[in-house]
Write a structure and sequence with these properties.
The chain is an alpha+beta fold. It has 2 domains: 2-41, no CATH class; 57-237, Endonuclease I-creI (Roll), CATH 3.10.28.10. The chain has 12 helices and 8 strands. The chain has helices spanning 2-6, 11-18, 22-30, 36-41, 45-49, 62-75, 97-110, 133-136, 154-162, 165-175, 198-210, 228-237, and strands spanning 76-81, 85-93, 115-120, 123-130, 176-183, 186-194, 216-219, 222-225. The strands form 2 sheets. The chain has a 4-stranded antiparallel beta sheet with strand order 1-2-4-3. Strands 5-6-8-7 form a 4-stranded antiparallel beta sheet. Helix 6 (62-75) crosses helix 7 and helix 6 runs parallel beside helix 10. Bound molecules: zinc ion. Residues 50, 52-53, 132, 135 line the site of zinc ion (ZN). Zinc ion is lined by residues 50, 52-53, 132, 135.
């Protein structure tokens, strides 16, 4: 290379002829030695942005993450794109603009990537691209959720145990509803949670158990919370969808 320099070639010409990056040729010419230690000890960009890859999943924002987990288990899916990029998509009905906003905020708080809204018929798809959705939601896998085993990892359960309310809220916001059951002209509010996956219904039931919220199976795919005290507990942090 020094011969090419002596022959009067400029950095661009040398780079083209040798395949060596132009930046490297400039360093050599000026006698600069890059600080390789600094490069080696710097954490990978992925590890910095993803608490799971960085080995510290408990540093995730508990409320936003477990709420998003509930939405994902209810109405979310992760699709695969080229170069190991994934897209988390959560479908929110147009009827609940507040819910769309909460979903968007939770997604942005969990990973600081751009969150998009795509209008579909009767609903909005809230979505973001990242390489890390499968580490954040290891329940991702081939096939439909109810056709595969869905269980929380140890660190996910630890986050839920800190406060199960955001998870329950996310699950009810995606797959639940608050209805009025009329008995002799008196309305009795109750909550229903419906999901085809017995595993996901189990996650909902166990989280309710942690807060002393009583539930029972309502039909093969649905659980209901009907006792007055339990409904009152859910009303404190869920309430009707909007
Ligand atoms: Zn990751």
């Amino acid at each position: 290379m020094l011969e090419l320099v002596r022959a009067g070639w400029n950095d661009c010409e040398i780079a083209r002829a040798t395949g060596i990056p132009r930046r490297t040729i400039l360093d050599w010419r000026s006698g600069r030695i890059p600080d390789f230690d600094r490069v080696r000890t710097r954490p990978a960009p992925n590890a910095r942005s993803c608490p799971v890859c960085g080995g510290d999943p408990l540093s995730l924002p508990q409320g936003a993450y477990t709420y998003l987990l509930g939405l994902y288990l209810g109405d979310g899916c992760i699709s695969t794109h080229p170069r190991q990029v994934f897209r988390l998509r959560i479908v929110c009905a147009n009827a609940y603009p507040g819910l769309i906003q909460r979903c968007e905020s939770a997604m942005a708080e969990v990973l600081p990537n751009k969150v998009s809204r795509t209008p579909k018929i009767g609903c909005i798809e809230v979505a973001a691209y990242s390489k890390h959705w499968p580490c954040l939601f290891p329940q991702h896998g081939p096939g439909r959720k109810h056709e595969r085993k869905i269980e929380l990892t140890v660190w996910q359960q630890e986050l839920v145990d800190l406060d199960p309310r955001p998870l329950i809220r996310g699950l009810l916001h995606s797959d639940g509803c608050r209805v009025l059951n009329w008995v002799n002209g008196t309305p009795y509010p109750r909550y229903h949670f419906s999901n085809v996956s017995a595993d996901i219904r189990g996650i909902f039931g166990r989280s309710c158990d942690q807060l002393g919220i009583e539930w029972r199976p309502n039909n093969p795919f649905s659980l209901s919370v009907a006792r007055q005290g339990s409904v009152a507990l859910l009303d404190e942090f869920v309430g009707p969808k909007r």
